[in-house]
User: Which sequence fits this backbone?
């Protein structure tokens, strides 16, 4: 219990530090919005699931070499971070190009459109909280994609001698599979970052993605330290999947309403 409390406190401290850094760059309103969006992305069940598949594969191959699990997990997280920063940069570039062709009044309308999108994504997460999979779909990786995702996730680990290299490549490829369940908050964040100068936008983009990958880092450290097994964490994820959708839905819906009414 004390260990879990310490881990939670450490995670909160890191998020608070990153949020404080974003306040210095963009101000309280924008920083709080971006932090909320990053947290909604971070608790998404998809990202946690793919890391658990990776760690399970590594532990199956190297059951007695926990250090390999640590470095492979961190390499995977680094790949996800780098890939998402690159995708975010392209997103901001595209939105910056669009904002240069519209007036400030039209851009305010564009931000409200992002707010409506966030509200819709929030409602879809509420749907999966109330009845997971209702309507034949979930706000996660599509069921039809999952066999391919697992293959692309695990193949590099067996193909390359270095588990670290294989994990990095797996993280870079799997990022594309994660987009359907993580793109919602990211698209809204890109719309918020578009008016900022490139140095500020890139700094905020990096902070956003550091918050996004924080749970993955925590899971890797917990498994490496022997505080919990992959099976226990997987069980917790399955038991908590509806609650995770509720948390993500609440954040997205609240921020979406704030964007629509012009509070942020």
Assistant:
């Amino acid at each position: 219990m004390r260990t879990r409390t310490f881990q939670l406190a450490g995670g909160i401290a890191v998020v608070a530090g990153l949020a404080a850094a974003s306040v210095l760059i963009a101000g309280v309103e924008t920083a709080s919005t971006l932090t909320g969006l990053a947290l909604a992305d971070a608790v998404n069940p998809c990202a946690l699931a793919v890391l658990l598949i990776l760690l399970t594969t590594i532990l199956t191959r190297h059951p007695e070499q926990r250090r390999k699990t640590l470095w492979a997990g961190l390499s995977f997280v680094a790949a996800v971070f780098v890939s998402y920063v690159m995708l975010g940069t392209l997103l901001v570039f595209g939105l910056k190009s669009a904002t240069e062709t519209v007036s400030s009044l039209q851009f305010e309308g564009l931000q409200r459109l992002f707010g409506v999108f966030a509200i819709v994504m929030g409602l879809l997460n509420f749907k999966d909280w109330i009845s997971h999979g209702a309507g034949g779909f979930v706000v996660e990786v599509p069921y039809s994609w999952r066999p391919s995702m697992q293959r692309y996730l695990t193949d590099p680990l067996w193909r390359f001698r270095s588990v670290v290299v294989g994990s990095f490549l797996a993280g870079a490829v799997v990022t594309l599979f994660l987009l359907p369940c993580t793109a919602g908050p990211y698209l809204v964040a890109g719309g918020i970052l578009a008016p900022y100068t490139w140095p500020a936008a890139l700094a905020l983009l990096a902070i956003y993605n550091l918050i996004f990958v924080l749970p993955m880092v925590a899971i890797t450290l917990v498994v490496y330290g022997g505080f919990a097994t992959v099976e226990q964490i997987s069980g917790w994820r399955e038991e908590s999947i509806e609650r995770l959708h509720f948390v993500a839905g609440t954040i997205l819906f609240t921020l979406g309403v704030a964007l629509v009414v012009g509070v942020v």
